[in-house]
Amino acid sequence: MALIVQKYGGSSVADADAIKRVAERIVAQKKAGYDVVVVVSAMGDTTDELLDLAKQVSPLPPGRELDMLLTAGERISMALVAMAIGNLGYEARSFTGSQAGVITTSLHGNAKIIDVTPGRIRDALAEGAICIVAGFQGVSQDSKDITTLGRGGSDTTAVALAAALNADLCEIYTDVDGVFTADPRIVPSARRIPQISYEEMLEMAASGAKILHLRCVEYARRYNIPLHVRSSFSQKPGTWVVSEVEETEGMEQPIISGVAHDRSEAKITVVGVPDRVGEAAAIFKALADAEINVDMIVQNVSAASTSRTDISFTLPADSGQNALAALKKIQDKVGFESLLYNDRIGKVSLIGAGMRSYPGVTARFFDAVAREGINIEMISTSEIRISIVVAQDDVDAAVAAAHREFQLDADQVEAVVYGGTGR
Question: Record-annotated residues binding substrate (predicted)?
């Protein structure tokens, strides 16, 4: 019997009516002859509300206790979904992340999955039950404490379970009808992408597209798990994320698959770095030791008169203050002059495997942005991606300009955002 793993985001289980609708969709797959494992997020904005509550009680809540609190949201969802399925005449059993065998590192708030040992899930499936698993959580291999997986953790839970159970398919249900050529909230004329490669989806996720989390796509590519991104609010076909995209008869793949953006980054400029061997290494080692991820890096040519240079880089804005503190500790040792910090930036990225064989894509992108009067502060490229940093207020205009330039608009409006703020 084929096995499907489904994941439902917060907007898909936001209230009692939504949970009943999800239960009907799950039961329909069971009736069709599939074994079904379901991963659920917390209802609506529950996680954010729990975080706010924790901050009201304690300005710096301990990581262990915060994880214990936040995982309650998914436990509520899993139990309610199991109850709704029971009302439809089918047996459902709910499992926490630890009961499902999701074993993680011990880093509270952003643990990584080490292994999945889904013995209890297999037993329940063998007995004909539908399994409902709390996403976003696991248990530490070392301390045996409850841990959370960070942003997109439920997506990652679903794909990890699909890999461990040798599932035929992993369906990710969200509040839009698939992966689009741009965020429909910014570009209402964005077009649904029927198929996209793991490679392109990884670049889109890394560039700010929030439809799938980066770790989830990495996991799917590693274990070659087909992902089907769909809306739980409609029956539309969604988007398939696969290893190789099939070319439509008579048509080549488009040059550009989509335009992604990210407003969650900040920029730090280390001013007046001595142009000596090892200074850049010292700067980025200090950041690595503070567990700060760096994205784009630009180093200026050193001034002949001073033999000093400036190094600019982008990083997640919520890591900005930690990064500044880490760099100030090594200022005397490295000998740089000062630090500049700017969190009013945004990243806009053009993604497409087709650009490998088409010259001039970069020029067209930059020209489209320039026609809008937008200044580019930084540039970064990969084989299938071009990213620029612009002022935060210019992000929407840059996304729309790039989308128009590469003729990504749909003939009619396809993009509908059903679920409001939830995933």
Answer: 47, 74
Question: Is 222 part of any known ligand binding site?
Answer: no
- Has 329 been labeled as part of a binding site? no
Number of Cβ within a 10 Å radius of residue 264: 13
User: Could you say which DSSP state residue 198 is in?
Assistant: H
What is the model's pTM?
0.86
| Tokens representing residue 9 in the block | 């985001």
Q: Which of 167, 221, 200 is nearest to 7 (CA)?
A: 167
Domain architecture of the chain: domains with CATH: 3-242 (3.40.1160.10), 255-407 (3.30.2130.10)
Rounded CA-CA distance 347/398 in Å is 10
Report the relative pairing of strands 3-8 and 35-40 from DSSP bridges.
Answer: parallel
31 is in an annotated binding site: no
Residue 44, marked binder: no
Name the residue among 116, 109, 1 with its Cα closest to residue 62.
Answer: 109
Distance, CA of 394 to CA of 309 (rounded, Å): 28
7 is in an annotated binding site: yes
pLDDT in tens, 13-35: 999 999 999 999 999 999 999 99
The one-character DSSP state at 241 is: E
- Check the annotation: does 8 bind a ligand: yes
175 is in an annotated binding site: yes
User: By the 8 A CB rule, do 106 and 142 touch?
Assistant: yes
**Cβ–Cβ < 8 Å for 213, 159:** no
Cα→Cα distances 167→6, 81, 116, Å = 10, 21, 13
Segments in the chain below pLDDT 70: 247-253, 304, 412-415, 417-423
Closest among 212, 209, 210 to 241, alpha carbons compared: 212
| DSSP H/E element including 386 | strand 385-391
Beta strands, E only, 50-145: 92-95, 102-104, 113-116, 130-134, 137-140
Ranges of beta strands (E only) in 41-111 are 92-95, 102-104
Q: Who's near 248: CB < 8 A, 6+ residues apart? A: none
Radius of gyration of the chain (CA): 23
CA distance 179 to 239: 6
First CA to last CA distance, the chain:
30
Q: Provide the token pair at 348.
A: 């806009």
The span from the CA of 48 to the CA of 69, in Å, is: 11
pLDDT digits (tens, 9 = 90+) for 371-383: 999 999 999 998 8
Q: Please, where are the H alpha helices in 88-134?
A: 119-126
